[in-house]
Write a structure and sequence with these properties.
The protein has 15 helices and 13 strands. It has 365 residues and is of the alpha/beta class. It folds into two domains: 190 residues, 3-Layer(aba) Sandwich (Rossmann fold), CATH 3.40.50; 169 residues, Glycogen Phosphorylase B (Rossmann fold).
Amino acid sequence: MRIAILSLHVGAMAHYASSLAQALREKHQVACFYPYGVAAEHLATADEAYTYPIPQWATPQELLGYLRTPAIIHGLKRDIHRWQPDVLHVNSGHILYGLFLKSLAQRYPVVSTIHDIDPHLGERRPFEHLKQAPLLNHSRIIAVHSEGLRQMAITKWSLPPEQVSVFPMAFNDVFSAWRSNTPREPKTILLYGRLRGYKGIQVTLDAMSTVLERRPDTKLIIAGQGDLAPYAKSIEGLQNNIEIINRFVSDAETATLFERCSIALVPYIEASQSSIPFVAASFGRPVIASRIGAIPEVVQHGETGLLVAPGDTSELAGAITGLLEDTALQDQLGQNAKRFINEQFGPKTICKHLEAIYAEAIARW
């Protein structure tokens, strides 16, 4: 089968698309269509990869890039037609899809992954409908990553149940090319990703104050893009026990951060799923995560990580302190997670699920 994967975002969405390509490539021919800025190592997971100057950030310079939209769309459609896929897999919504996805859907069966049915708590996404509508209108199959999300999609968008399929989240060892054997820091914990309120930033900062009472040598790293101004006072109070990297974090830096940390945090207040447990597992690092959304399907309490109630500062602090004091448990959870992810979410499993979804999309076309 010839499969085209269309993914117009950098960062985690590009990592996800790269994982899809890696899972499929052993048995199928795969081409990926990305924005500029995706690392060569991710491009190499596909048989062919194409990149385009698609704006990513809401800066004046980036917004001017939309003036080139007609040329971008012309080139992208031309390259997809030349590839002649049997199926087109669209990864997440984008504002540009309304301009050309319909014409592609007239020539190829479309499968679309939608990661979030509703905006996250506190997020403003005024154009979300414009991003998702082309996927909903022109996809033969909508793919999501949990049964809960499937039911939400069916209800919210009045979709026929047979149009919405579930398959395991694909997020393989995407940072392997950047491993540098950076020494592990036994007292360092990591909160990584897009920095938004729903990811439990304040809960983490409050928990750190309690952790430091018992473990004053603990360090918290917060890394990623986002507005940290609302947390300035709490951050200042942690002084030398916190390291802030408040910008887009490169793949190489990401690998170093996960090598440095002993524990990765996923203390979300609200979530559908997260790629962080997959990344942490690839480095053999345990996670402490909120018992919310589809996260417990990946993080099994006491087996592959620890789960806490969302928003519970005391429980989070206790879990951090206890795990910092038990290095043997850290190693056990990290290795269990690595093995579990490889067995349940590895390339062969993902490929098998996608083959069934693609066959259904082709049959429905």
